[in-house]
Amino acid sequence: MTRLFLIFGIVLLTASSAIAQRSNRLSAADRALIKKAELNEQIDPKAKAILNDIKKKYEAYGTLEIKFKLSISVDGEVDVQTGTIVQQDNRFRLETKEQMIISDGKTIWFYLKNRNEVQINNTDPDDETNFLSPNNLLRIYESNQFVYALMGEARENGRSVQAIEFKPREEMEDLTKMRMIVDKKNNEMVRIKAFTRDGAQYTIDMLSVKKATATTDKVFSFDKSKFPGVTVEDLRID
To answer: How far apart are CA 234 and CA 109, in angstroms?
Structure first.
């Protein structure tokens, strides 16, 4: 289930020679995306401007609360989940019907509700499983690890939306590409869709994005006293 939280990042594309050398295995749409990024000196300024506007808006909230719907499509079967994430600086709390993932910036707790089990780890910013964590939601596109481009504009549910597609500059273990749909007028993310190497597709619809109400440190920590009988697996390295 870790992969579903990777989607919360923004995967952006910067054309690289490594990708170009593999272009014969890419679809026509992927080749067009890479070519567009190359023609724009490896950065699509229109896409970057859109992402900058979104980042500024969300950062102004201070503490961000997102309610979302996650659809997972694997071999023609679709599983739908809903959840909430609260993000403050490098701390977050993400909860669905099945699990919680909580981080205070130093420690991360993975809690499985049906098993009443929690796994504890040190956070590792260099770990690929943390690479697209919620902490990087508004910042990851500023790195040089992806290529990205604005692919077009359309009408959706009565509003103008823009599509930005992203591809890892170098091969990643799971992710092959991602597509973000943005509300043009309100500078908000509408939907993020991720494509993985095993053919699965993960789609997150943003049901609401707003400034969170007052939060305390307790929101970003796991209190095992509230989960009687919980099994604890502590994998932290001192």
So the answer is: 9
The CATH number of 2-86+137-215, from 2.50.20, 2.70.240, 2.40.160, 2.30.29, is 2.50.20
**C-alpha dihedral, 5 to 184 to 51 to 124, nearest 10°:** -10
Q: Which two tokens stand for residue 6?
A: 């990777």
Structure tokens at 62: 């201070």
Q: 74-80 contacts: CB < 8 A, separation 24 or more?
A: 74/198, 74/199, 74/200, 75/199
Give per-residue pLDDT as tens, 184-238. 999 998 998 888 888 888 888 999 989 888 788 999 999 999 999 999 999 988 7
DSSP 124-161: -TTSHHHHTSGGGTTTGGGSSSEEEEEEEEEEETTEEE
pTM of the model: 0.74
User: What is the three-class DSSP state of 118?
Assistant: strand
Contacts of 207 (CB under 8 A, 6+ apart): 67, 68, 69, 82
What the block records as the tokens of 223 is 């209190």
Give the residue from 113, 111, 131 showing the smallest Cα distance to 121: 111
75 and 68 Cβ atoms separated by less than 8 Å: no
**Residue type (1 letter), 185:** K
Euclidean distance between CA atoms 153 and 162, whole angstroms: 4
List phi, psi (to 5°) of 129.
-70, -20
The domain ranges of the chain are 2-86+137-215
